[in-house]
Amino acid sequence: MAANDAAREVLDLPIRTAGINLIEHWQDPRVETIIRSPVTGEVLEVTSPKDNRSQLEVRLHTLDHDQRIILIRDVTPLNRLLTTRQDFLANISHELRSPLTVIVGYLEALQDSANIQDTEEIVARLLSPVQRMRNLVEDLLTLTRLESSPRPSIYDLEDVNVAKIIATISNEITELEGFDHDVEMAIDERTRALGIPEEIYSAINNLITNAVRYTPEGGRINIRWLKYDDACLFEVTDTGPGIATEHLQHLTERFYRVDSPRIAKSGGTGLGLAIVKHILLRHESTLRINSTLGRGSTFGFTLPSSRNAI
Ligand code: ADP
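Above: the input entities. Below: the structure tokens describing the complete assembly.
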């Protein structure tokens, strides 16, 4: 048997392969069957003899009755990608199914409703699940757009008035359901950052909205925007439930949610922090999370400062 360097590496073969019997080395009956098969072009996916977490695609070509070429491809990363995609699609279907079930229920009730008052009440209730589905679709589109567009170059970044963005968002949060929070701000209006304005808006909006949604009424929210060394720092701290350490590293995964009664009724899409992570990645920044269970959380990031800063 002869093998090239790549085959030796992937199959864990010694440098001298003459005299080695591949069937004995691999010890997999399916591999034996394919090697002995007279049919050319057969393909098989098997576990690697070197590492049982790796999958190899084995393709057999018969040259003549006693000569075969076996092509081996490591398909582990491809399989991982396919599994991630399948999980993602399963999650989306699941997320869409619950509001749809509610909508169908209300529509059936609407068919049977006898008076106009019932009808009005049912139509009003339809709004919430419809809104949930719209938010989900919008967040999915945002995420796809972020993932598929190239990273902005330094020439794409603009001078962003983050203080103004924060002011706009803090006006909007007062309209959120259950808003009764004490919001404190430490904002340096002269600090301006380099970035893509709509993306910075979206990241800050997600973080501040989360702070409000997850902090019970009467809680305190602190928002900071200031110069920090050579960069600009954004931070939002809340006095909400906090997050246990084991969840922190998963929070930016799509659809990852910490299971708790308050969080279950928050009605979020589960995509907010995944969007924030992508936006920050596009700005050469990362999301920092500090949290203590029962005391609250701080979410923050830094951005390069704008040369236009005063
Ligand atoms: P969601 O739409 O569920 O809010 P996110 O991606 O924005 O999705 O957040 C992911 C999860 O992180 C939330 O479901 C929640 O469990 C947790 N989380 C986010 N922000 C906070 C916060 N300020 N306090 C406590 N938990 C939070």
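Note for the figure: Residues 87 and 93 are 10 Å apart (CA to CA).
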